[in-house]
Amino acid sequence: MSKKIIFTTAAPSPIGPYSQAVMVGDTLYVSGQIPIDPDNGDLVTGNIENEARQVMLNIGAILKEAGLHYHNIIKTSIFLKDMNNFGKVNEVYGHFFSGHYPARETVEVSRLPKDVNVEISVIAVKD
Fold first, then answer.
1. Whole-prediction pTM value?
2. Annotated Gene Ontology MF terms (predicted)?
3. CA torsion, points 80, 35, 44, 67, in degrees to nearest 10?
């Protein structure tokens, strides 16, 4: 079984001892992404929609580096600081897919890295 570390400067660098993503065979495991702007390292704030959009863009950059796209995502895990933001995050998230949505869970957590409001991780598979 081959393991390849995926890294791109188009997504934020890890803030701990982990990889942005790891490809094992045809499966890509993307670490949880938070709303950090990779251009300047600043947190994207203002509203949950902007935060969720940045998270999804970061995921997209990692997918692209691995030669994949959003349609390759088969499983998503969404972590929210406040479940009252579920509808807003769901709306932003949905714009990145066109049918055949991945399996998913969304859970409320008490705290996330850098005290952000949303973190998303995904698993994707090559076609």
1. 0.97
2. 2-iminobutanoate/2-iminopropanoate deaminase
3. -140
Distance CA 90, CA 77 (A): 12
Say which residues have a Cβ less than 8 Å from residue 84's Cβ, sequence separation at least 6.
none
89-106 pLDDT, tens digit each: 999 999 999 988 999 999
For residue 4, list its beta bridge partners.
23
Which DSSP letter does residue 8 get? -
CA distances from 83 to 26, 48, 72, 78, 88 (A): 33, 11, 26, 11, 10
Q: Return the number of other C-beta atoms located less than 10 Å from residue 108's C-beta.
A: 13
In this structure, what CATH number is given to the domain that contains residue 20? Answer: 3.30.1330.40
Task: Measure the CA–CA gap between 82 and 60, rounded to whole angstroms.
Answer: 24
The range of the structural domain enclosing residue 33 comes to 3-125
**Tally of structural domains, the chain:** 1
Sign of CA dihedral 85, 86, 91, 93: positive
CB neighbours of residue 58 within 10 Å = 24
